[in-house]
Task: structure prediction
Amino acid sequence: MSIMSLLQYALFLLVVVVLVRPLGGYLAAVFTGRRTWLDPLLRPVERATYRLTGVDPTHEMTWREYATAFVLFGLTGTLLLYTILRLQALLPGFNADALSTEMTPDLAMNTAISFATTTTWQAYAGETTMHYVGQMVGLAAQNFLAGAAGLAVGLAFIRGFAREEGATVGNFWVDVVRGIWWVLLPASLVGSLLLVWQGVPMNFHPYTAATGLEGAPQLIAQGPVAGLEWIKNLGTNGGGFFNVNGAHPYENPTPLTNLLEMLAIAVVPAALTNTFGRLVGRPRDGWLLFAVMTVLFTIGLLVCGAAEQAGSPATAAALTASTATQAGGNMEGKETRFGIGGSALTAVTTSNGATGSYNSMHDSYTALGGLVPLVNMLFGEILFGGLGTGLYSLILVALLGLFITGLMVGRTPEYVGKRLGPPEVKLIVLYTLLGPLVVLVPTAVAVVTDWGLAGLTTNSGPHGFTEILFAYASSAANNGQNFAGLSANTPFYNLSTAVAMMGGRLGLGITALALAGLLVRQPRRRVTLGTLPTDSVLFGTILTGTAVLVVGLTYLPALTLGPGIEALLSGVAR
Result:
């Protein structure tokens, strides 16, 4: 691995570490109603929003009310987006003449669900399928709304630990409004201007007709790219304006934009660990969660980068060796302006962050290199993760680890003063089982039916199996990345991945809210000599071990059938 790649990784992690504390404090202030520097500008806008929508900001919700609002909000967004997508032909569009792909009913349904669940599983090419109005009014709007809804659920989950002997976890509508006005919109305005400065287009021009050097006609897509690009990363959606997403020079033109867009994905979820520590009154617990995230993230980053730099053993050494004129390694499917370092950083960040953006084709990665983003998604968004979802996913793994530890030492487990009794443990176990259910079951169906196997138009064998497993892991993790060798724009995949997306979004979100509803009723128990410290290196080890153990026991057979066998075959071929 090159020194430049390591420096790039170190710079990324350093910026994240530096921003965690100030941004964590800012988020705590925003969602507790304390004064921020944006209040003079946004408070009147907030009050006007409540008057316009009829929301009572003083009304506190139980977890059931909060979950109901969360589900209805998501379903309404899905329906509205589906309507926009189906009526695209009737909407004004400066690029309408250049569109060549129809948005069929099953594709529109899949796309609407994917954006409303922050998955953005894209079985279409944006530049040949989407009108400008559909991109901005439909997709970009859902990036804000769905991202804010996930952030709201994360804050409600935190309140389950922070509050004592209560019955409410906040107001969903207030959390969404404050998430949009105080967090997503200001950051998106600044970020989009930075992208425009770096050369990302922001226009409504028709596509440009050009003639290539060899005389062949070419149609160069234009559009309001910058308006969608930043919020797709910040809102953990990741849907690309163009088919190749962040590999396109209009979406991601320079190494600097690549670094900025990756920071947009990781910084807010990382800062929520600090917000958690502040709101529960235990900052050290928040820092420990962040440390576990960072350690596992770094391990995956180094493994992926090293695997891609080494290349496949089946590839001739002359093609992958480093020389004075080339970096070497596996450059198939990667952009030279990012190289292996920038490509690996993006693959690991986006697969951890519930954001399906990418700047290289993961289908062309080595068996071990492609295994890393797959395992990241199977972890369930615990490494930084999505807005809100990453935090509660990691804490639920921590609670499972506490339960297992409690069984071994014969003590009732506690976390930040809240006891885990039988009702809480049942919800933790349910949460743990939901992920494998919506990943492994549809994968099994796909590999034994003609409908599923018909999608393997490029690869078969263990790599083809990995493509299918990757698709459902991505859908369940609300990520949206794919191994592009799978032809997924079919009724079977459009319907089955939509079910996985809904399970990963609504099923896990409702379970997390139900647990918060149980915890918020408890008093805060004081620390005694018998309490397991949850801010210690020992607990960090327990948390890390639990995460690895659960993924290993659940998915190791499937991972062996895919990347495992592929790695062995590539080694034998050498």
Q: What stands out?
A: Residues 3-210+219-281 form one domain.
